[in-house]
């Protein structure tokens, strides 16, 4: 009987240690996520620019954006970003064409706003 009680005690002790580790890890990762400005970052700006661009395409699912476009995103102040880039996508006839564009977005509190968007002739 004593060996059964010892096994039960080890199981409960191991479970308590497991819970402590999980709580500690969640607090560590929570602190990391709150210290990074994820919502108003260049990464998020690029995601939003690509979404705004896709809304203007005939076949948005075929969109292929310029590789390395993140390097072209320019920050203007704390929450304003712009880019001059291109996207390859199918037109209404199914041909893939390259369209150059210029886009400026602004992060306002909890949402992204499109400030300006133009397709450029080349």
What are the key terms here?
alpha+beta; 32% strand; elongated
Description of the molecule:
This protein is α+β, with helices and mostly antiparallel strands. It folds into two domains: 1-36; 42-120. The protein contains two helices and five strands. β2 (74-76) and β3 (80-90) form a beta hairpin. The chain starts with a helix and ends with a strand. 10% of the residues are buried.
What's a concise summary of this model?
The chain has helices at residues 2-35, 42-54, and strands at residues 64-65, 74-76, 80-90, 96-108, 111-120. The protein has 122 residues and is of the alpha+beta class. Strands 1, 2, 3, 4 and 5 form a 5-stranded antiparallel beta sheet that branches.
Low-pLDDT stretches: 28-37
Rg for CA atoms: 25 Å
Kindly report how far apart the N and C termini lie: 85 Å
Q: Overall 3D geometry?
A: elongated
Count of DSSP strands: 5
Largest sheet, described in full?
Answer: 5 strands, antiparallel
Strand content: 25-35%
Number of helices: 2
Helix content: 25-40%
Secondary-structure-derived class? alpha+beta
Walk me through the topology.
Blueprint: H1 2-35, H2 42-54, E1 64-65, E2 74-76, E3 80-90, E4 96-108, E5 111-120
Antiparallel strand pairs: 1-3, 2-3, 3-4, 4-5
């Amino acid at each position: 009987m004593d060996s059964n009680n010892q096994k039960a005690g080890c199981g409960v002790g191991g479970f308590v240690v497991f819970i402590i580790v999980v709580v500690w890890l969640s607090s560590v990762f929570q602190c990391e996520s709150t210290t990074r400005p994820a919502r108003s970052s260049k990464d998020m700006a690029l995601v939003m620019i690509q979404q705004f661009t896709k809304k203007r395409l005939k076949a948005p699912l075929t969109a292929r954006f310029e590789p390395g476009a993140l390097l072209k995103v320019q920050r203007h102040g704390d929450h304003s970003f712009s880019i001059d880039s291109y996207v390859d996508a199918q037109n209404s006839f199914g041909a893939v064409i390259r369209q150059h564009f210029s886009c400026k977005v602004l992060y306002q509190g909890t949402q992204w706003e499109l400030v300006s968007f133009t397709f450029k002739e080349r």
